[in-house]
TrEMBL record:
Lineage summary: Bacteria, Pseudomonadati, Pseudomonadota, Alphaproteobacteria, Rhodobacterales
Domain of life according to the entry: Bacteria
Catalytic activity from the UniProt record: 2-C-methyl-D-erythritol 4-phosphate + CTP + H(+) = 4-CDP-2-C-methyl-D-erythritol + diphosphate
Source organism: Roseobacter cerasinus
Pathway: Isoprenoid biosynthesis; isopentenyl diphosphate biosynthesis via DXP pathway; isopentenyl diphosphate from 1-deoxy-D-xylulose 5-phosphate: step 2/6
Site entry (Transition state stabilizer), positions: R15, K22
Family: Belongs to the IspD/TarI cytidylyltransferase family. IspD subfamily.
Keyword Cell cycle attached: no
Entry EC no(s): 2.7.7.60
Keywords linked to the UniProt accession: Isoprene biosynthesis, Nucleotidyltransferase, Transferase
The protein's name: 2-C-methyl-D-erythritol 4-phosphate cytidylyltransferase
Positions MEP for the nucleophilic attack, annotated site positions: R148, K201
GO terms under biological process: isopentenyl diphosphate biosynthetic process, methylerythritol 4-phosphate pathway
GO molecular function: 2-C-methyl-D-erythritol 4-phosphate cytidylyltransferase activity
Biological role stated in the UniProt entry: Catalyzes the formation of 4-diphosphocytidyl-2-C-methyl-D-erythritol from CTP and 2-C-methyl-D-erythritol 4-phosphate (MEP).
Length: 224
């Protein structure tokens, strides 16, 4: 089985704000994209890496020192960016792990969980069970409690047999919030694998500090 990682980094990061898109802003001395790429580049089971970039950000320097990596231009939506990367992989690998460049703290354990599940099933993705009580609000007040049973928070990398996820994208060119949703629309069953609280997506301003704390604690453990 040949496995590729497809890292999407072509968004503009409007919710996080800042002088440049969130995936290029300084994070623990590097960038979120650097840490996301490193997690897969260092993984012995990953044979190929595709980094999907906004056309304004394309620079060959980004993959210097990463012989397995290839750069592809992204699209106007996350789904369009993923589809561009998938097309570049067509016929080259059997399975693909699709990951947000905005999730810099993904661990080897989370990646391994998805890879292991793909030996048994066509699609698998990490998630974390919702443990907090959930409320629906109305005008700033609690309108009702929402049952949390069976609810999960979706994460990446979302893993697929390449033929299946390519077929799902071709059948649903309108896209979806993520690839699990597209795969399900195309009729594929998706297994849930263990996610991690640390595998946050940098979405808002405060997420940078949280990601730096997680990366700092991890590097401290690795060198100490
Ligand atoms: N056209 C797009 C939109 C998103 N992404 C990528 O998809 C991941 C998750 O998307 P999200 O967090 O929504 O990123 P943005 O679209 O950049 O954020 P925002 O919605 O706040 O603008 C990010 O790594 C982002 O770079 C992408 O490659 N191409
Ligand atoms: C793919 C994803 O990261 C799963 O949590 C998510 O769908 C990305 O986009 P969002 O706009 O923040 O929901």
């Amino acid at each position: 089985m040949k496995i590729a990682a497809l890292i999407v980094a072509a968004g503009r990061g409007l919710r996080a704000g800042g002088a440049q898109p969130k995936q290029w802003q300084p994070l623990a001395g590097k960038s979120s994209t650097f840490f996301a790429l490193r997690a897969f580049a260092d993984h012995p089971d990953i044979a190929h890496l595709v980094l999907v970039l906004h056309p304004d950000d394309i620079s060959a320097d980004l993959t210097t020192g990463l012989p397995k990596a290839q750069i592809v231009a992204g699209g106007a939506t996350r789904s369009a960016s993923v589809f561009a990367g998938l097309q570049a992989l067509d016929g080259r690998v059997d399975q693909v792990l699709i990951h947000d460049a905005a999730r810099p703290c993904v661990s080897r354990q989370v990646i391994d969980g998805v890879i292991a599940a793909l030996r048994e099933t066509v699609a698998a993705a990490p998630a974390v069970a919702v443990v907090d009580a959930l409320w629906r609000s109305a005008g700033g007040h609690v309108a009702e409690a929402v049952p949390r049973d069976g609810l999960f928070r979706a994460q990446t990398p979302q893993g697929f047999h390449l033929d299946a996820i390519l077929a799902a994208h071709r059948a649903h060119p309108d896209g979806a919030a993520d690839d699990v949703e597209l795969a399900r629309r195309a009729g594929f069953d998706v297994a849930i694998t263990p996610g991690s609280e640390d595998n946050l997506k940098i979405t808002l301003r405060d997420d940078f500090a949280r990601a730096e704390r997680i990366l700092g604690a991890r590097d401290g453990h690795q060198t100490g």
